[in-house]
Every structure is written in C-alpha cells, then in structure tokens.
Amino acid sequence: MPSITFKNVRNFACRSVDLEINDKEFLVLLGPNGSGKTTLLNAIAGHVEYQGNVLFDGISVDRTPASKRGVGYLFQNLALFPHLDVAANIAYSLKIQKWPQDKTQDRVNELLELVNIKHLASRYPAHLSGGEKQRVALARALAASPEVLLLDEPLSSLDAQTAKYLRTELKQIQRRLGITTIYVTHDLMEAVNIADRMAVILEGKIEQVDEPEKLLFFPCNERVSDFIGAPNILDCDYCKSTGQGVMEVGCGGLKLIVPHDGSVVHKIAILPRHVYVSEDKPRGPGVNSFMAKVTEIIPRNDTVRIQLEVSNNKLVAEIPYHIYEEMDLDTGKEVYIILRMRRIRVFENRDDSNNKTGIR
Amino acid sequence: MIKILKRLKPGWGLLPIAIFLALWEVIARVDVLPGNFLLPPFSEVVAEFYHLSASGVLGENFLSSLIRVLIGFCAGSIAGIVIGTVMGWNKVADRALNPLISLFYPIPTLGWIPLLMLWIGINEMLPITLIFICSFFPVLYNTVTGIKNVDRDYIKAARSLGASDMKVLTTVVMPLALPNIFTGLRLEAGMAWRVIIAAEMVAIPTGIGALLMRAESLIRIDIIIVCLIVLAIMCLIFERFFAYLENRITARWRQHAVHNI
What we know:
Chain A is an alpha+beta fold and 360 residues long.
C-alpha cells in the first residue's frame, strides 16, 4: 500500500495543497461543503485536472489515467451500476481485468462475505436499501484489491444508527486490509470517531493535519477553531465507573455522567451547541444539569454564543438566534445549563488514536 | 370453460372496439344517413379483406410496403444509433455534426420526396431512403440524449474500476442509454408506416399506399378501409414489439427509477 504525497496541488477548487498521507493510514479530510474535499479525492483518483504533483510512494501518478491508478473510489451517491446486479457490480473490475470465471466467482463470494451481503448477490441496486447499497459499493471498490481507498461522504445518506454501525465496520475492514484510506466528511464527530489523522480543509487550503485529539484540543488557528466549533474542554480530577456504559467524572467541582466504560478519563469535550441553556430549572433528576452565570454574550451570524461560569469552570454555549431572542439573558444572570450526555466526548490519557470511544 | 374465460380476460380492452364495430355495422345497414353508400358495413369490409387476401393483391402490396419499411427502418436506426453514440461520447464529433443535423432535422420527411424523385428516380430506393431519413434523425437524437444523460459518476466509477474509454462506453454508457434509444425506436417504428404510405400514395405504384390511391379512384371505400385497418395494426405491432423488447432488456433493473441512486 502506498503513501500518498501532494506537492503544491492546485486547481479551481484547491489552493496549493501539500499533504502527506502515510502508508495504511486512515486519514479523514474534514471541511464544510465546497471546501475542495471531493476535488482533492478526484485528484488522487485522476478524475480532475490539476497542477502540481500527486505521488504514490514517491512516484508521480500525474500522467497515469484514472483507470490505471489502482484506486478504489466510493462515491457520495455510490454510483452502483443500475443495470448490473450486485454480483456483477462487484465483479465489474475483475471482468475488465479479464479474470477467469471461477476466480472471479470466488473473489465475489469472498467480498460478499466481507461486507455481509451474501444473500443479496442477485438483486439489482434499485431493490436495495441505503445501507445495503453502501456495502455493495464498498465491496465493488475493494474487488480488485486497490492500494488506495477513497471514500466520499459514504454514510451521509444513511440514518444515524446505520451510519454508526457501518462506520465501525468500515474501520475494521480498513484495519484488516491495511489499505491507505482517505475519507471525506463534513461531520466533525464522524471524523473524530474514525480517523487516524484528520486534515481540515477550508476554502481549498489544508489548514491543519493532526490526530483527532490534538486537532480538537489545539486547533492551530482561528479558522480551524471556528470550523470545529471551539469545543469546551474540561480536565477531569477523578472518574469512577457506575456500570451500564456510563461513568461519573469530576471536572473542577462538576459531577458529570459521561458515556464511557473503561479506563481512566482525563479530559472531556463538548461542543457549544450541545450545551443547553434554560432560564427555568429543568425538570427531572438533574443529571449533567448545573447552575451557571452568564459572563458574556457574543452574537454571531445566526447563533449567539454565551460564555458561562460554572463552579470555576468556563463553558461556552451556542444557541440559535431566534431562541436567544425569546429568552431574557443578560450578563451576570443566573441560568441553568444541561450538557447533553451522548454528545460528551471523553479522552483517555494515552496518546493512541484508537483508544477512544465513539460518541454521536 | 372457466380456463378459456380466464385466458380471454386480458381481452376486455377489446370491448369498446367490439361495440364500435357493432354500431358501425348497424348504422351502415339501416340506411338513415344521407350518402350512406360512402360507408360500407363492417361485414362487407371483412368480406373484401378476405377477397383481397385470397387473390393475393393485399399480400403482395403489403409485402412490398413491409420490406421497404424494414430495410429503411433498420438502416436508419442503425445509422442513428452509431452516429448518435459517436456524437454523445465524443465532444469533437458532437460539435462538428450538431449544426448540420440541426439544419436537416426540421425538414419534414415528405418534403424530401420531390428532390429524391429527381435524384434517385422512381424505384425501390426512393421509399427506402425516405424511411431511412424518417428513422435516422429521431433515433440519433434520442441516442445522443441518452448517452449524454448518463450520470458522470457512473463513468468515473467505471474508470476507477479500471475500464478503458471503450469499455466504459460499451459496458456502462450504452446499456444505461438503452431506455432513451428504445424510446426513439418505438416512436419511429410507427412513424415509418405513416411515411411509407404517404410516399407510396404520391410516387410509387406498388404498396399499401398505392392500393389506397387506386381504391380511391374506383370509389372502393371497402378497400380503403381494409388498407387503413392493416396500417393501424402494423403501426401497433411495430410499436408494441419495441415496447416489449425494451421491457425484456431493461425492466429488470428499472423497476423503480433509473436515477434513484
């Protein structure tokens, strides 16, 4: 499997991209719509013109046509051939390479098993669900054992549950095959959950390439920080397991219940938009609910950021402007906040990107 | 008995036709309308159909029309599909040929008759050339549209999977353009019959169209109606044949929509 290097790659959507993707790495390209993510994938696959160089293992592929680059590509709309059934879709690249019939059949069966869709072999794409199509597309992309796998928001059209399940599976398959993978998404949490490293691309420019944890905690500039939504990060003083997949952690006097079950938690992060603000005391048992003092109100485009002080911790909440207008907030006012438990991310201490729990 | 009824069930659509024929028969026979001699009863038409068939007149004329239609239509469609594919796939060819085709396409097929009579002369090639022209353009346009409408992502996907340009065309683009190509073929299959009749009425002494004109000069309304019925049936059979073929080839994968990906 090759490493991939971008040297000063530029075109209508990309501005001087330099990027190094390691052998067997799972790199997530993260950026908003129109930031040039897909164009960068297309540059690797050879579907778009560019200036500069793309190198596989140090060898330029700029003049190699798309059909010879040995790249598996999972398109956002999957692009399953509607006139071929599942088995024929998967076998497409093998037929092109003129594999003998029996070997093709074996390989197709192997792939059908890999992505757990053996029963669908003779169905046509029009009769598959979103998740099934996704699996077929993955199997087809992997059929000719490509050295590089490109995934363009493959899960964006699926419901959250299926997406979560497939994401885990995708990661496992990638690990098993050890294939250099570039995964494009605009969803920060999706990226954090799956990436070995993340590259944030804004307006056609790579802003930061780092491990998820580092990127989340130490955005290199204002733009990245703005894009990822400047998460609240709290250091934990203690943690104890309470069973049932949750843990109690203490952060500067706050007692929080977080969705984690395992080793020691050292930090937690939560995005401002996942901190709810209420003027009235929320009903219920009051888990992850605290009293806070408004210290500053910062209007943004269509949201308002509210800085809060909660027992010596500083937190930022973000609420939509129309909700802010209905509330009577002012600096110094006491409000109630709730941290959405399922949105809290926990970080263990070790510097290993695999060592984190997926939360959505 | 029940089995026979069951088998006849799809024939319920024929009921309005049966009622229409019965009314026709009654109106023609009761002799209430002025100029009734201009409408022979259906039974007489059937009898004439039998006479014409038995004497071989109908068969002979029908066969010459059919052969013209088949040769002209096949040649025109194949040329339309081939050139349409080249134009749909190759931008240079598209740019080069499109202006010419846009210029010739609007000319009504029958408008070519005087010119072709002088160029080709009055022989078998005249109706065949007309059918060729009449089939060529619509099939060409539908093929070009079909090929251009194939989602770029399918093409990119096929390339990424290792397919050369030629393979992309033959294994992905052409099959996906088939529904469009069939639309062109289906429409033109019926149209070819309309054109051949006109050509035979104007210029050629044989064929169903010529038989029609001769019947007109002899005021043989029954023969005219026989010819028209034959035409109606042939148009229908041709159109249905292509609809059937299209269904056979593409229905498996088009049960929802082609673009539901």
